[in-house]
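Propose amino acids for all 114 sites.
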């Protein structure tokens, strides 16, 4: 069963117009997740938390690319890249707040990787 409140939070994250609005949306989502933790099965909680983290990361990347273009820096230097979340933000040890190391791989880095 889909959680309608989480759906609203994901829409809010996905429509954040700037980093400040994204931060506020993430903080609301984090507060909500903290409130449902005691009554949620852990697998369901982790799945919902990962959806929120993924939405925040997706929107942050879009906002960064938009800001680069606004500043006249153009598009990213490649058409495809991968965001890798490591440590506590990874899938084996999710946490309520996004505290993680991150790596980026560009299409040039991924040549020959399948």
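Proposal:
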């Amino acid at each position: 069963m889909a959680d309608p409140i989480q759906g609203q939070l994901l829409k809010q994250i996905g429509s954040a117009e700037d980093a400040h609005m994204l931060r506020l949306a993430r903080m609301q989502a984090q507060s909500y997740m903290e409130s449902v933790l005691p009554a949620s099965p852990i697998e369901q909680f982790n799945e919902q938390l990962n959806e929120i983290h993924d939405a925040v990361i997706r929107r942050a990347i879009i906002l960064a690319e938009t800001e680069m273009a606004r500043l006249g820096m153009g598009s990213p230097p490649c058409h495809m890249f991968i965001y890798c979340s490591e440590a506590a933000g990874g899938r084996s040890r999710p946490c309520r707040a996004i505290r993680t190391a991150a790596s980026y791989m560009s299409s040039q880095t991924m040549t020959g990787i399948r």
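Residues 4-106 form one domain. The chain has one domain: 4-106.
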